[in-house]
Amino acid sequence: MKQVKTFSEYMNDEERVSPAEREKINFEIELIGKMVEAREQKGLSQRELAELSGVKQPAIARLESMKTTPQIDTLFKVLNPLGYTISIVPINAKK
Amino acid sequence: MKQVKTFSEYMNDEERVSPAEREKINFEIELIGKMVEAREQKGLSQRELAELSGVKQPAIARLESMKTTPQIDTLFKVLNPLGYTISIVPINAKK
DNA sequence: TTATATGATAACATATTTGTTATCGTTAGT
DNA sequence: ACTAACGATAACAAATATGTTATCATATAA
């Protein structure tokens, strides 16, 4: 019987990526997740957000599907019309 | 008499950049400022932080002097050894 | 003065993101 | 069946960040 893993199991496999790498991946998943959530909660399509932010729809799609890692100014431009921004916080600022 | 402006006066000049552009610049200044502060408060040199983060010293120098705009994974790698991370927050999370 | 460590920067190669334009498959509604 | 809107993606050009190596000017200390 073939063993199939979930995505998070795959990503957290010790032998596949280093702990630091896994930490970075989880960070990005959470960050991008919040970004998608924010857009959907506003009821905006990618095309509408593209219009509002100045970031093109294909770029937004690539970000949301994690094909690329955004620069902070791109993330800022996308988040801003959604009412969010980026902040540096202590690691122990729990949840 | 020639009129000389401060940097922030220059950056906030209505006729030089759009409000959105100015907002983005101020955002980056504040973000990078916190990053530099965090490194200095830890008493680390750019070379030491380079060692800890895996981001090369010239790259860190370019970020700190705002010659380049980091990608979020680069910023994450630099902030992490300093005890900080990046978070998405509502714009009205004052200060 | 000499030595050492610092941040900044030059020069170039490499990697990656973003723009641009177009189109695809899918879903929802008519 | 048709239409419209959606997110995803292909293909390529352009812009930008990062790696790499070396060096610079400055400050600090011996």
Describe the structure.
- The structure is a homodimer of 95-residue chains.
- The first copy, chain A, contains 5 helices and 1 strand, in the order αααααβ.
- With 95 residues, chain A is mainly alpha-helical.
- Chain A is globular and about 40 Å long.
- Chain A starts with 6 loop residues before the first helix and ends in a 5-residue tail after the last strand.
- Residues 1-14 of chain A have low confidence and may be disordered.
- At the A-B interface, helix 2, helix 5 and strand 1 of A face helix 2, helix 5 and strand 1 of B.
- Strand 1 of chain A pairs antiparallel with strand 1 (84-90) of chain B, so a sheet runs across the interface.
- The structure holds a DNA duplex (30 and 30 nucleotides).
